[in-house]
Each structure stands twice: as C-alpha cells, then as structure tokens.
Amino acid sequence: MGKGCMTATKxxxxxxxxxxxxxxxxxxxxxxxxxLDNQSFIVVLNNSTSVKxxxxxxxxxxxxxxxxxxxxxxxxxxxxxxxxxxxxxxxxLILIAQIAAGALIYFQKDVLNDEMSKIVSKVLDNYPGNxxxxxQAWDFIQRNMECCGWTGRLDWNxxxxxxxxxQLLFPCSCQNISLASGNFSDSGFCEAPTAEWPxxxxxxAASVESWLLTNIGVVLGICLGVALIELLxxxxxxxxxxxxxxxxxxxxxxxx
Length: 256
Description:
- The protein is 66% helix and 2% strand.
- It contains nine helices and two strands, in the order H-H-H-H-H-H-H-E-E-H-H.
- A two-stranded antiparallel ribbon has the order 1-2.
- It is found in: Membrane.
C-alpha cells in the first residue's frame, strides 16, 4: 500500500472512530434516559429485573463503544498494531453479539410478549390511583396512544380499587375525550355516570405494535447502518494493521 493510501486510511479510521465514540455516547445516554425518565414506557416495567438489566446493558455497551472509539483513534493516529488488532477483534465480537441478540429476540418474541403482558397486568391490578411515577407513565401512555389496558378495557376489571368500590370507576386516562363531555382528571380514577361512559376500546398492545410496524423501517435502517459502519471499521483497521512495519511500532508511541 502506498504512503498516500496509508495516510488516507489512517485518517478515515480516525474519523470513523470519532463517530463510533459519539455513537457510544448516544447509546449510553439512551440507556440512562430509559432508566431515569419518569415519562417513558420503561417506568411501567421497572419492576422487571430483565428490563432493568437491558437498560444496564445499553449503558455498558455505550461505555464500551466509547472506550473502543478512543482506542481506535489512538491506534490509528500513532499506528500502534496491537491496539488496531485489539480493536478489530472487539468489533468482530460486537458484530457477532449483535447478530446473536437479533436472532434471539426474533425467535423468542412470543416469550417476550407474554412476559410483557404479565408485567403490565400486574401494574394494572395494583394501580392505586395515588399518582406515583409508574402510574404517571402508564396514564401518559394511555392518554397519548388513545388506548385502555393492555389487550383492552376489560384488563382493568382485576384492579382492586375498582373491584372494592361501590361506585362505577374507570381510569381517567382511559377517557375518550373526543366523545366525553365535562372536565376530568388526567390521572387516577374517575366516577362514570353510566356503564356506557366513553372510554378507549383498543388495548395499548395494539397501539405499541402499530407504532413498531410504522417505524420498523427506521429501526432496521439504523441496525443495518451500524453493522455496515462496524464492517468498514474492521476493514480499515486490518488494512492499516497489515501495512504498518513491525520495526516502527515503538517509534509510534508518543513520548512524554
């Protein structure tokens, strides 16, 4: 490989790793947001250990990506073969892990759906109407997705507050505001004048599935883009590593 090609490869790899570092920061920030935000769907599922583990995995992957980006930048600029080899190996392992995770999610989607249904059913049954963080998140979902319950409005029939009340109660966030009249709260329970009081009939599972189907192109595009970027990084790193002369290794390490 000529000197000009070596220089171009080196700086392309540096730019790639800078982008990789920033992507790692975004992933870590996304994991922290899911873990700490009190208006996201994750709050409803915060009693699930697997969901919390998923958030911590996102944070760990983001931090690891930032570290890999830093090492890749260092190896590219100073042409350190051991760092470039380590970088290539880690990228390969990450790519294999992503493929395995995608296959696992695809083949275990029914199990994941059942687990999600159990978690949400538990949330609905134990919903006391005292405006806690979990309840605010679920009210936000029902109000903005215009849905009620997980599979439908009847999911609320197991709620102990509704079961033990002598009044005809329904979650205020289930109210179909396009058909109802009067002022009602956005959270907690509201008293219905009649059993025919308008609430949303569709369950939130259908709304979530519809949202995923609508945005599946964006999700697949992001996944494909990440995989291509990783492949590009692997190609650049191995090309640069193969063309660095062994005797020059120690002269590339910065002196202090």
